[in-house]
Amino acid sequence: MFEKVLVANRGEIAVRIIRACKELNIRTVAVYSEADINSMHVQMADEAICIGKGPSGDSYLRIDRIISAAEIADVDAIHPGYGFLSENSHFADVCESCNIRFIGPSSQAMNALENKATSRALAKKAGVPIPPGSDGIVENEQLALTTARRIGYPVMIKAIAGGGGRGMRAAHNDISLVKGFHTARTEAEKSFGNSGVYIEKFIESPHHIEFQILGDGRGNIIHLGERDCSIQRRNQKILEETPSPLIENRFKDLRKKMGKAAIRIAEVARYTNAGTVEFIVDEKGSFYFLEVNKRIQVEHPITEEVTGIDLVKQQILIAMGEPLRISQGDVQFKGHAIECRINAEDPFDDFRPSPGRIEMYFAPGGRGVRVDSHAYAGYTIPPNYDSMIGKLITYGKDRREAMDKMSRALGEYMITGIKTTIPFEQAILQDPNFRRGTYSTNFIEQLLGGARRELIEEKS
Ligand code: ADP
Ligand code: ADP
Ligand code: MG
Predict the structure, then answer these.
(1) CA 189 to CA 220: how far, in whole Å?
(2) Which of 26, 79, 189, 209 could form a disulfide with 21 if both were Cys (CB 3.0 to 4.6 A apart)?
């Protein structure tokens, strides 16, 4: 059993991990930047060590400082959370070579799925459909043109190292392709330190459906069902739900097929620990592999609500070397869960980040309501990190009940002093297409066309 775990992250996910450790009687060590001295994860952990200045390059991304903190605190393992170093195989290797368990996939599995291009190749090998596109990195303009003409416009130019919805652009003809190819490479170099891009078919009106998987490194790999994350703004998830309305209402057989495909990818990658296999599904119900997120994901709680399985505890147990005690047949799905991401952004001003001091804070509660957050009254949100300050999750016996609870809970959530996306989430919940469950990733763009005006009128 681990006695002590260091959490190499901040915000709500650090709080989430500390909670799991406490329930397993594991002591916790927080690391924090100077900007996070008043952060809740620092308060909640048994010990806390400052690892540098506010910018993440001087703190949460500093492998040397995190390892020093782990050695000083004498921990058994490090949980990396999501973002930051969570998908860095070099970090996982350094942990292991210092005799500290990395709570995540083995570095071999991470290397097999190192970037979007290697992952596409692996999916192909596993016999899982991928969007038509280039074989690996597209090195020059000429190859970009021949690839795009071969698969047909529109296409997506994507950074192999991209993430968080950044590093991709659509092209509709030769001219926008050539222009997009060069800007995408430059941006990719700047944002991800890797200029590699590849090209794949742009799937129109797609649905983002992903599968949660767990593997124990002893040959047991299971999936815990899907999450529909099609409600996105600029390719970033805003609201997630499970089960997927598209699968429930139109393509019932997809759950089995896609679940199997997800497991096959995990098998070929010899995947261990928790991961997510992401797919896009078109209007006809054809699915295509996108990528594997080699870490715990932001939207993991909705899966926990419908399966009753604590994913972070499973991650810790797997990292300790425990075999999975759940078989595929044991996984039962019950009810419906929805998550809304609460961001410190102003939906009335183009989602401009709104850091600052939270004056009043009251989180919703009651049956079927879960809040995963590090926010509290008097907390000052630093400008250095991403703007998510919490997640509101509701659970109901069916989709209708989960939606009604979500509207009720969003109405109760009181945060003053900063702007939040709560009114925007509320507008999504009121939308007839959302209520019917007939939406694709185009949803937000369409909603902003109409509802944006209403939101602005409501404000004035
Ligand atoms: P999820 O599906 O879990 O929401 P996201 O892609 O939204 O995953 O990313 C979760 C977190 O990780 C966010 O904080 C995001 O900014 C960060 N992130 C993901 N990929 C990268 C990347 N390649 N570079 C920098 N940050 C990333
Ligand atoms: P990230 O690493 O940023 O999460 P993904 O490859 O997972 O990148 O894509 C994020 C989102 O971008 C998808 O959920 C989808 O909405 C959109 N997207 C990505 N690839 C395509 C594509 N080929 N066609 C249409 N939409 C896409
Ligand atoms: Mg993704």
Answers:
(1) 38
(2) 26
Q: Whose CA is nearest to atom 15 of ligand 2?
A: 235
Q: Write out the chain's pLDDT in tens, 460 residues.
A: 999 999 999 999 999 999 999 999 999 999 999 999 999 999 999 999 999 999 999 999 999 999 999 999 999 999 999 999 999 999 999 999 999 999 999 999 999 999 999 999 999 999 999 999 999 999 999 999 999 999 999 999 999 999 988 889 999 999 999 999 999 999 999 999 999 999 999 999 999 999 999 999 999 999 999 999 999 999 999 999 999 999 999 999 999 999 999 999 999 999 999 999 999 999 999 999 999 999 999 999 999 999 999 999 999 999 999 999 999 999 999 999 999 999 999 999 999 999 999 999 999 999 999 999 999 999 999 999 999 999 999 999 999 999 999 999 999 999 999 999 999 999 999 999 999 999 999 999 999 885 555 554 455 4
pTM reported for the whole predicted model = 0.96
* Planar angle of CA 11, 236, 444, nearest 5 degrees: 125
Instruction: Tell me the β-bridge partners of 228.
Output: 209, 241
Residue 359 phi/psi, 5-degree rounding, is -85, -65
Distance CA 410, CA 340 (A): 9
Among all bound ligands, the one having the nearest atom to the CA of 188 is 1
The gap between the terminal CA atoms of the chain, to the nearest Å, is 57
Which residue minimizes the CA distance to atom 3 of ligand 2? 165
Ligand 2: lining residues by beta carbon, under 6 Å = 131, 156, 162-165, 168, 200-203, 206, 208, 232, 235, 278, 280, 290-291, 441
Dist. CA 290 → ligand 2 center (Å): 7
| Domains defined for the chain, CATH in brackets | 4-103 (3.40.50.20), 132-201 (3.30.1490.20), 207-454 (3.30.470.20)
Q: Measure 197 CA to ligand 2 centroid, in angstroms.
A: 14
Active site residue 295: yes
Query: Of 169, 295, 370, 399, which residue is the catalytic one?
Result: 295
